[in-house]
Description:
Number of strands of chain A: 9
Strand content of chain A: over 45%
Largest sheet of chain B: 7 strands, mixed
Number of helices of chain A: 0
Low-confidence stretches of chain A: none
Largest sheet of chain A: 6 strands, mixed
Structural class of chain A: mainly beta
Number of helices of chain B: 0
Order of helices and strands of chain A: EEEEEEEEE
Largest interface: A-B, 25 and 26 residues
Oligomer: heterodimer
Strand content of chain B: over 45%
Order of helices and strands of chain B: EEEEEEEEEEE
Radius of gyration of chain B: 14 Å
Amino acid sequence: QSVLTQPPSVSGAPGLRVTISCSGSSSNIGAGYDVHWYQHLPGTAPRLLIFGDSNRPSGVPDRFSGSKSGTSASLAITGLQAEDEADYYCQSYDSSLSGWLFGGGTKLTVL
Amino acid sequence: QVQLQESGPGLVKPSGTLSLTCAVSGGSISSTYWWSWVRQPPTRGLEWIGEIYHRGTTNYNPSLRSRLTMSVDKSTNQFSLRLSSVTAADTAVYFCARLYGSGNYYKKRFDYWGQGILVTVFS
């Protein structure tokens, strides 16, 4: 079964840096497919945060950055702010699924 | 600014058919985008359901394909989802979203989303 594995939760104090990992396989991230990241506050529309592994849409602060290596990708958030508290999801194409695959999501808590 | 809004019944009986519509505003559904459905079961992550192009071409999640039908209505700038033979496992918040990106299909991402609609399968 194709999966993108994320830690269920991460936390950090205001002003500090956190990273969220997204581990895939040779049928998705490892195959070179782009990784995208979304921020989601329950009850609202998910927001595209990072596309194409490391690109930010206009309006997304440069505190958010993405990277990819091998079969994994990471989202880094620097200068944590209370408003960053949300769920974060990675997403990529999967050739076994022949479709789009999301990670299980990571809940970020700002202490 | 493109906006998407889901609508449909919030309660569906087991073995019934879940029907949702997504209204697109601020842009034409006939543009060169794929229009998608994603769901989030309670306490779980996001699951891609499927997508449709304005010409009617579809891609479905294999786990749902046998129960799934998507359609586009260009006259009303809406697209729809029908999921048959539902069970409690289909209880989720359903989102519609636009799949965006030029060139390589595999580089596309979901750039606009609706706020989601909770559908509960309950007798």
